[in-house]
Specification:
3 helices, YefM-like fold, elongated, about 80 residues, alpha+beta
Length: about 80
């Protein structure tokens, strides 16, 4: 991700905003210390980035999932007592 200092950001603000609007986020820093991140408005808010369970109801896991392929595994690696 591109990091620019405040002076450079002021000088090239139009170009940087156009890039951010196209999805190329950037960071503005002061004295090398990152201060803010500029992202397009279409980017999801941190609270919207929910990933766990995003396919709920679209797939199913069989009840015997933990036993599937057991015979083949035991044949390949031997049975542990």
């Amino acid at each position: 991700m591109l990091t620019v200092n405040i002076h450079e950001a002021k000088t090239h603000l139009s170009r940087l905003v156009e890039q951010a609007a196209k999805g190329e986020s950037f960071v503005i820093a002061k004295a090398g210390k990152p201060l803010v991140k500029v992202v397009p408005l279409s980017a999801p808010e941190p609270g919207q980035m929910r990933r766990t369970g995003f396919m709920r109801g679209q797939i199913s896991v069989p009840d015997d999932f933990d036993q599937m392929g057991r015979a083949e595994i035991e044949q390949l690696f031997g049975r542990e007592g």
